[in-house]
Amino acid sequence: MDITLNQAEEVIKAAHVKAQELGIKIVAAVVESNGHIVEVKRMDGAPWGSIDVAINKAYTASAWGISTATIADECRPNGSLYSIHFSNNQRLITFGGGEPIYVRNKLIGALGISGGTADQDKECADAGVDALK
Asked: What domain of life is recorded for the organism (predicted)?
């Protein structure tokens, strides 16, 4: 079973709360395990350019089942995933802010956050994913 709309809303709400704590404006996107969009919400004042980035972070985390921050570590020259960002019609994002969402060890979707630094985006994504635990 994939993530539900109610679960997506819960995840996004928790991510927005963390963004407010950090003093940043973000876009949060949730996708199903197949990468299809469930919900996207942009905080007032968040950069509109962050919409596609958030969606693609969620897509990346869902496609590979791992954090985009982990992918970032492996994408460096000589890394095991070097040049992966050229795959999947160049939709893959290789910096922090995309997190897979697992329930009982089953991938049900992913959350992508954009608007802050990669580390801030990851903090917000972690807070969102933790809301379902």
From this structure: Bacteria
